[in-house]
Amino acid sequence: MTYQVLSLKWRPQTFDDVVGQDHITQTLKNAFKKDRIAQGYVFTGPRGVGKTTMARLMAKRMNCLSPVDNEPCNHCTNCSEITESRSMDVLEIDGASNRGIDEMRHLRENIKFPPMSAQFKVYIIDEVHMLTNQAFNALLRTLEEPPVHGKFIMCTTDIHKMPATIISRCQRFDFNRISSSIIADRMKHILDVEKIEYDEESVSAISRKADGSVRDALSLLDQVIAFAGDKIVFDEISKILGLIPYDLFFELTTAIKEKNGQQLVSVMNNIRSLGTPLEDVVNGFNQHLRNLLISTVEGAASTLEMNSELQERYTNDSVLWERRDLMRISQVFSKMEPEIRRASQPQILFEINLLKMLEMDKSVTIEELLLSNLGSSSGRKVQYTIPEKKSSQIDLSVSQKIMIGHISEKKENVKPVDGVKKEDTSEKLPEITVNTIHKDSEQSKGSLDLEHIKSNWHQVISKIGSIKTSVAMVLEQTLPMDLNNRKLDIAVYDQPKFSFDRLERNRSLIESTFEEIFNQTVRMTFLLAEDTQEEIKHELPNGPSVPIKGNPVVNRVIELFDGEILR
Fold first, then answer.
1. Which of 8, 13, 170, 267 has the fewest CB atoms lying closer than 10 Å?
2. Cα-flanking dihedrals φ and ψ of residue 48, to 5°?
3. CA–CA gap between residue 58 and residue 114 (Å, rounded)
4. CATH superfamily of the domain spanning 6-174
5. Helix residue ranges per DSSP H, 358-505
6. Dmax of the chain from CA atoms?
7. How far is residue 221's CA from residue 206's CA, in Å, rounded to a whole number?
8. Dist. CA 551–CA 563, nearest whole Å
């Protein structure tokens, strides 16, 4: 006798034999019970989940001579003919091969004739989405009002390619992807009947590789039985199925966790020697990261579709990982999965991304980052350092040092401003960073008083605040310090580098605003003062006093995330 593959040998012959589609089988059995059979059905879903099988069961039950409990008897003449695909009243049409308008016209003419021996003439159109628009249009009228004896059952994997006019004339049933546990139970039943020994790990691996398709699972099982014979062992079948051992993925994550470059390179060489497609490797690694991530939740490892030993191993390994780190790694390789199919050098892309993981730092929460440098005794101590930005310190040339000395001599004759502690300029000099020393040949056209500028500096701030709030907020923490031949030196206290740069970028705006208020033109130079100062307050007419030193947490947020305070 000719050998029959498992997917055909074990094709369900009753509604109860169909696994994983209980919501459909129960509905159809009730429809037969209440005699509410529609003229057209559309079955949609992924491959290998039972669409065509359900269509044949429907045709068999419609024409069964002696149904039992709303199930076909599988013994009468009509059931036997339909099972053996030789019934003249149940016609299966391949939509991919018969997709034109001529075939639909032929179908429309034939359906007018009554069935030869059965009660209904049933047309099963597989892959119906392959029909042309003209063919669908030719089918519309017949599908809406077929003869009493005519029934249509259409199956498709791409429901979105079907016209809405066709779907609206039929009852639509969506078939679900079947879970790995249901597929595994079905395979165990088949293996027990076939008297073939197996281990749990092998069945679980085949069910996962089938990706929700029972037909794919049985085809793989056929292949495994041909290779292994009467006893299926995971270690032997992993090569023929292209399965990647779990140990390889655990070694990958361990090397990344321990920053062990030698071990990581060794694992990459092992992957290359396997010859497995990199798409499968990346997909398997993403599954491994997902299992680790789920296992970080207490007790959740038991929900993983694998044997108890692997569940325990995932539980033990997940304790060593921070959940945020696993999410970051998973995000990288999830994005890489579609990219690797289009890459000209997929091996290089995969290995470079693995090596990048060696440089990945440990995840730190925003709270920990803010508390890292505050020095608060009540705060949580975190071993995390922010790299120092040395770019804010600029080497002073000889001419710049001479200019700073000239400014310092002028400052000795200036009275200290209220609220500002006067300090020795010789000690303060090294802590002043000069951004730019400007040269101006403009001759003096009038007299300006430094004290007058200081007392009315709040007007400049208010005026700019109506134009650019962010610039005004920085100016509130500045103070005019020296005026020499229409060159105004302004000290910027306790401000990060990006705030200082904001003043530099808006220099022309500040100078033009100064000219509007004082009727004098000056050339401004901003000096970044990094030493500790007393609180400086500018009495603004339209708002409360704003101290130069705010909440340390707010200052830390502004520094780390390049933010600004807006009114």
1. 8
2. 70, 25
3. 19
4. P-loop containing nucleotide triphosphate hydrolases (3.40.50.300)
5. 366-371, 398-411, 425-428, 450-455, 457-465, 469-475, 497-505
6. 119
7. 7
8. 14
Q: Cα–Cα distance between 189 and 410 in angstroms, integer?
A: 97
Q: Using the structure block, give the residue that is written with the tokens 């003419």.
A: 109
Name the token pair of 461: 């701030």
Checking phi first, is residue 344 left (phi over 0); if not, alpha (psi -120 to 50) or beta?
Answer: alpha
Strands 40-44 and 171-174: what pairing?
parallel
Helix (H) or strand (E) holding 491: strand 487-493
- Measured in residues, the chain has a length of 567
In this structure, what token pair is assigned to residue 293?
């991530």
**CA–CA separation, 68 vs 80, rounded Å?**
15
Question: Residue 38: which residues within 8 A CB-CB, separation 6 or more?
Answer: 31, 170, 171
pLDDT digits (tens, 9 = 90+) for 181-202: 899 999 999 999 999 998 888 8
* CA–CA dist 552, 533 (Å, integer): 15
Closest by CA position to 333, among listed 253, 266, 264, 390: 253
pLDDT tens-digit series, residues 252-273: 999 999 999 999 999 999 888 8
Q: For the chain, which residues make up each domain, given as ranges?
A: 6-174, 180-240, 246-357, 392-561
Q: 49: which 2 tokens?
A: 């989940």
CA distance 491 to 384: 32
Q: How many CB atoms within 10 Å of residue 214?
A: 25
Cβ-based neighbours of 376, under 8 Å, separated by 6 or more: none
Distance between CA 243 and CA 275 in Å, rounded? 11
Mean pLDDT (whole number) for 461-484: 86
Q: What is the DSSP letter of 211?
A: T
Token pair in block for residue 355: 């090596």
In the chain, the amino acid numbered 557 is V
- DSSP code of residue 169: T
Taking 70 as the threshold, does the pLDDT of residue 428 lie above it? no
Distance CA 83, CA 78 (A): 9
Q: Are 414 and 484 in contact (CB under 8 A)?
A: no
pTM exceeds 0.70 for this model: no
Domain 392-561 has CATH 3.40.50.720: no
**Alpha carbon distance 175, 20 (integer Å):** 9
- Distance separating alpha carbons of residues 22 and 15, to the nearest angstrom: 9
> 1.10.3720.10, 1.10.8.60, 3.40.50.150, 3.75.10.10: which CATH number matches 180-240?
1.10.8.60
Distance CA(137)–CA(40), nearest Å, equals: 15
Distance CA 551, CA 381 (A): 19
H or E segment to which residue 154 belongs: strand 150-156
